[in-house]
Design a protein that fits this description.
2 domains; mainly alpha; single chain; 161 residues; 7 helices; extended
């Protein structure tokens, strides 16, 4: 379910319906109902607005970073004119950054692990687009990229590791 946003928008609803139909655990029904009401059939957040299929940027981390930088520069509850001046300075920087991006002079800084996941994800998307990877295959593969890493318990660690 967590990988549904990685599908093309037009494939999300049928896939959700298929997955919901396979559910035999009654305790999962509230989650499915929540997802259906809040995301799948939402008029506020249509599926097209949260499908990130084929997109290189899939988080709001850039916005969060900008907000943190703005707060650091202005402090808590700044005077109105200080806030206006700071926002104006930010607007001027954004115009310069847009020009640099258009000229391919500015690139995103991305950690090695994120680049690796990005490469695997785009390779999976290419296979999916080519028809050599099924929807369930894409979801399974994507789940391996984004699953949490659970450390082994000491009794599970072999001495030869």
């Amino acid at each position: 379910m967590l990988c549904l946003p990685l599908l093309p928008a037009e494939h999300i609803r049928p896939t959700f319906d298929m997955m919901s139909g396979l559910n035999t655990a009654p305790h999962i029904n509230p989650l499915l109902e929540y997802m259906s009401n809040t995301w799948i059939n939402s008029t506020v957040w249509p599926v097209e607005s949260w499908s990130v299929y084929g997109q290189t940027v899939r988080t709001n981390n850039d916005v969060e970073g900008w907000h943190r930088r703005l707060n650091r520069r202005t402090g808590c509850a700044p005077p109105l004119y200080t806030l206006i001046r700071t926002i104006h300075e930010e607007v001027m920087k954004v115009e310069n950054m847009i020009a640099l991006v258009n000229e391919q002079q500015l690139q995103r800084i991305q950690r090695k692990a994120s680049r690796s996941i990005q490469a695997k994800l785009f390779a999976a998307w290419e296979e999916y687009s080519a028809g050599t990877l099924s929807t369930s295959g894409l979801l399974k593969r994507c789940s391996t990229f984004y699953r949490p890493v659970v450390p082994k318990r000491p009794e599970e660690v072999e001495l030869n590791e």
